[in-house]
Amino acid sequence: MIRHRFLALALLLFVAALTGPVRAQGRSDWLTPFPAFTIAGNLHYVGSAGLASYLVTTPEGHVLLNPSLEANVPLIRRSVEDLGFKFSDIKVLLISHAHWDHNAGAALLKQETGARYAVMAADVAAVESGGRADFHYGSFPGSLYPPARVDRVLRDGDTVELGGTVLTARLTAGHTKGCTTWTLAVNDAGRTLQAVIIGSPNVNSGYKLVDNAAYPGIAADFGRMFATLKALPCDLFLGSHGNYFDLAGKHPRRAAGAANPFVDPAGYARYVAGKEQAFRTELAKQRGEPRPAATKESPPTPRLLFIGNSFLFGSGSPLRYYRADTVTDLNGTGFGGVPAVVKAFATQAGRAFDVSQETVSGQGLDHHVAEKAGVIGRPWDHVVMLGYSLLDRNRPRDPALLIRSAKQIADLLHSHNPRVDIRLIATWARADQVYPAKGHWHGTSVEQMTRDVRAAYDRAAAGSPHLRGVIPVGEAWLRAMQTGVADPNPYDGIAFGQVCLWTHDHYHGSTHGYYLEALVIFGDLTGLDPRSLGKGERVAFELGLSGDQAIALQQVAYDELMAMKGRTRLESFTPVALAK
């Protein structure tokens, strides 16, 4: 009883020492129990009403993020056990930042579970000194806590892996020198969701952003933090305090079985934008500058989804895993492929897309209707999709299944966002289906197969009012062959000075073929001239294409796009550098 009275008194002293944003968080809800629940997949909420703690469960033990107040450790234990897990199975302990309200319970939790404690490097001194090394609160008696030994020192981008789950630590300093935002991919009912658990973007009352001898780089760190947060792909919006992401408002909807309210990328974007505006206002005030005009809320980054198969994820080419960390693979297979290349082109053009892909080898659109509706059925801004290369696996050359399944997917996507822009990709002719006797287009030509595939996609587009049109990738391949850029028959050798658009199986694309595919998709989606990417285009360089080959393929893509009915112009641009 005496111990609990002491903890309660310490809490009151700490809250009394703070004002502004921190005081607003220092409420009785810090100690108020909250129902433990599953957020999504193996990610669970086990915190109090005001202080967020998270349990990530795996077959090899569990990860706990934010041990909270020392008085809340029993509450966390009960929450873990209420969910059916053992408290003693916690193997790894993490924090969002080294403030008392989030890590005062660390020493006790380590003692009770034996968990290894991993902390961002710049917060280690504060943790191991019990808060005394904190740049701002080190002299506040109410902010001190039992010191805890750190078992692993983290740097920006380090990962914590346990039982097949990977959490990534992103340094988002400012609130503390080692403030950490944690991200992880959560597999939930067949779909992969990107969770972002924000450390803290708050400029607390009393923080000196200018001439801070204890933390000279604080303002610059806040600026870098907001740049990092805005660049993170986010489906599940979470944070170190429940009021960041409206825990109290969303939990009842989750408990009622509604669509998961914690899937809130728009709310994440609004929250980050609002906190950045608050930071810049305070910085201007401390610098003695005029108050910055309130900026209009930045719209969320457009969400672009690719649906398809190996013709998109890049089978047979190094593209398969190219820049996979820049896109979200909804099936968790870790592919980059054409979606990652399109994103790289867009980035060089100064355009932002939040890119996801849902691709399954050897499948048509009917598979995505039957098996992946729960994965792709969400609000997207743009969707690009393609079907099986022979139109129908069981009835080659028959477009009926493609037409039917394209309409079904379009209806599904439109039901989640009536303004979604959906486009089909007419794929290329397969050399293995034209030249060998066993091929379903044997006796015809590459030109004929290209025309047949395009006609099928035209019929599919006409079959739904929600389908905007067809991207002419197959015809761009044909144009490359007809203009001497690419060799039309890989079975008789590749002509000098030409590229082969097929890979070794004469079926899938080569790196050159996928590069051309991505150029056409990029130009069609953005209305930008792919030739502006130029000879020094970064993807071509990284994948081993020569500058001359890149220019030739960019020209082919431009010519094919300009040949589309109704196309009047493509806008040129000056490319910007692409990060390594």
Q: How would you describe this protein?
A:
The chain is of the alpha/beta class. The chain folds into two domains: 2-287, 4-Layer Sandwich (Metallo-beta-lactamase, Chain A), CATH 3.60.15.10; 303-562, SGNH hydrolase (Rossmann fold, 3-Layer(aba) Sandwich). The chain has helices at 2-17, 20-25, 73-82, 100-103, 106-113, 121-128, 218-231, 247-255, 265-287, 310-313, 337-348, 365-371, 373-376, 400-416, 431-434, 446-462, 473-482, 511-526, 538-543, 547-562, and strands spanning 37-40, 43-45, 54-58, 61-65, 90-94, 116-120, 152-154, 159-162, 165-171, 180-188, 191-198, 236-239, 303-308, 328-329, 354-359, 382-385, 421-425, 467-471. It has a seven-stranded mixed beta sheet, covered by helices on one side. A six-stranded parallel beta sheet has the order 14-15-13-16-17-18, with helices on both faces. Helix 11 (337-348) links the parallel strand 14 and strand 15. Helix 17 (473-482) crosses helix 18 (511-526). The protein is elongated and about 85 Å long. 49% of the residues are buried. The model is unreliable at 1-26 (pLDDT under 50).
